[in-house]
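Each record in this resource describes a single protein on a pair of labelled lines. The shape at a given residue is found from the number at the same position. The record below illustrates this layout:

***
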Amino acid sequence: MDEVEVVVAHAERATLRVGGVFLKVDADRARTDTEVGAMALAPVPTPQVLWRRPPVLALAALPGAPLGRLGRAPTASPAAWAAAGAVVRELHDAPPPPWPGRAGRSPAALASELDAECETLVTRGLLPAGLVARNHEIARAALRPWAPAFTHGDLQIAHVFTDDDQVTGIIDWSEAGRGDPLYDLATLTLGHERHLDDLLTGYGTDAGVDPDVIRGWWSLRSLLAVRWLTEHGFDPFAPGCEVDILRSRM
């Protein structure tokens, strides 16, 4: 009999694996609606939907392994990163869905959220004021107008699966929608900056990828994540994770 593996669990949702099946439990039906709808529209490999009985969504496991993990040295080859870049570009070039995604927040809304979060990080003593101020400054590069694209919205390195230097699928689409394509590129390379050039080999440099904006998203995403991760049982202070990413900007 297959054992039940808890892949991730916190107050908002949980994912379990039983053999070749992933069971995603989410009390927010809208997130699951987004995930199923985005996978149906995305022109890239995604997990097969086996069945859905709210609040549970059952998905088939993908072949291969994640491109890497945040906080760990990636083992994927430059060719695998390039393949991931090509698939992400295919997604970004597709007609965007009619709904806004996580990467679709306006620059004004993000600026307001960033200002408030930075103040909270300092007043609660979660991070030193100098570290927050430096990364706040860098993050401003991401706060500019952008052309809407079909974005994944949570394109963490662990969400892209590869096998033999080919992408076998992308998981976790609950944040997908219209958004800034550079947010996806920054999320995928977060903590693995040296692979950005490999990623862009497949993605292409004709799309106006600005490294300063990517760096801005690295800082912005990390600043906004630290408190949430801490409050939900994760450790952003672990080696190679969000706080180390912020420190690397000093």
In short: The mean pLDDT is 95.
